[in-house]
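Troubleshooting: if your tokenizer reports a length mismatch, compare your output against this known-good record of 245 residues.
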Amino acid sequence: MVDDAKEVLMRLEGVHTDIGRYQILHGVDLMVRRGRVTMLLGRNGAGKTTTLRTVMGLWKARQGQIVFDGQSIVGMATPNIAQLGIAYVPEGMGIFGKLTVRENLLLATAPRGFAQERLDRVFECFPALKLKWDSAAGLLSGGQKQMLAIGRAIIEQRRLLVVDEPTKGLSPAMVDHFIAALLALKAEQTTLLLVEQNFRVARAMGDDVAVMDQGRIVHSGEMAALAADEALQQSLLGLSLGVGA
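Known-good structure output:
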């Protein structure tokens, strides 16, 4: 992979993170290149979600560096990290079920309120949100809730979108819709870092890939190269990303 500071938006170097008395990350090295989709893959419990939460300051790195566009963000509060242009969509979506779609999106823009151009962009990606504008978020389908979660993240222009398993539990048709929507964001020069268990999605979206195992990055490179090497897939993941996957 290219190692050029002008191309790298975010870099993790030797990151260690503990949760209570358990050490979860054991020196994570990860590079996220500008304008590209980086897939973070690995078996359950490998440390993927912990990595994302550490980037966002929700869990504190005990050791190591996280540098975003040349600035260290280790030790920064989560709201300050978000203000740099990083949006995070957790696996649990993080929406407010008793509030309407409109109110959920409005909270993500406070105190400025909606910019019509960005709201139109959200509707372009997720037309169902316009139809459900005055509906309580808790009454949405699983796919619509995920649309709202990502819509909240992109209602303002973001430099990096970090999403934990965006297609988990969705129907194949809905998965295709999410692939198209996220690739449209990439076309706007939004950089994406995605944790994903659906390997068809990883193959379709990923430019770069990093594979985690036991709290470490054990492989990184081009997604296309991993997708073409079934032996390597089996070794790293115990699964196949091949054409039939």
